[in-house]
Design brief:
Strand content: under 5%
Order of helices and strands: H
Structural class: mainly alpha
Helix content: over 70%
Largest sheet: none
Shape: rod-shaped
Radius of gyration: 59 Å
Number of helices: 1
Number of strands: 0
């Protein structure tokens, strides 16, 4: 029985080694995948860190440059506002010119209409009175009898 037990343990041991080898063989691609994933992850972390360092250096330079830019910014805004005012004035000038042309055309049409119509005599105005205060009106009594002879 002792030999059976030894054979049983030896067979059991061989089977377990075979199963372990099979599982190891099946897990090998997953192990390789895990190693490559870890390498890519570490590489991306290193790359991100280097980008952060370069970004902080660029940020410092920009802050130094922007302080001088902030001093020039009000001057630039003044020039921009002046140029926009000039553009607005130019637009208004063009609009005024077009209005003047329209008024001239209308005046020419009206002049042509007045020339084509016959002239009518305008009524005379009464002469203005010389005094501004009203004079009392003198009334004469009319006679009831006539002074002229009638032919009978």
């Amino acid at each position: 029985m002792a030999t059976d037990k030894k054979q049983y343990t030896a067979a059991n041991q061989t089977i377990s080694q075979f199963v372990d080898a099979g599982i190891g063989l099946a897990m090998l691609p997953f192990s390789l995948l895990q190693r490559s994933f870890t390498a890519v992850k570490e590489d991306s972390i290193n790359h991100f860190s280097s980008l952060q360092e370069r970004g902080s250096a660029v940020e410092k330079q920009l802050k130094e440059n922007l302080t001088s830019f902030k001093l020039c910014s009000p001057i630039k805004s003044r020039f921009d506002s002046l140029s926009s005012k000039d553009a607005k004035l130019e637009q208004l000038s063009v609009k005024i010119d077009s209005l003047v042309e329209l008024v001239a055309e209308l005046a020419a049409k009206k002049a042509a209409e007045t020339k084509s119509k016959p002239t009518q005599a305008t009524p005379r105005k009464r002469a203005a009175r010389s005094s501004t205060t009203a004079k009392p009106r003198t009334t004469r009594a009319k006679s009831t009898t006539s002074t002229t002879k009638k032919d009978a």
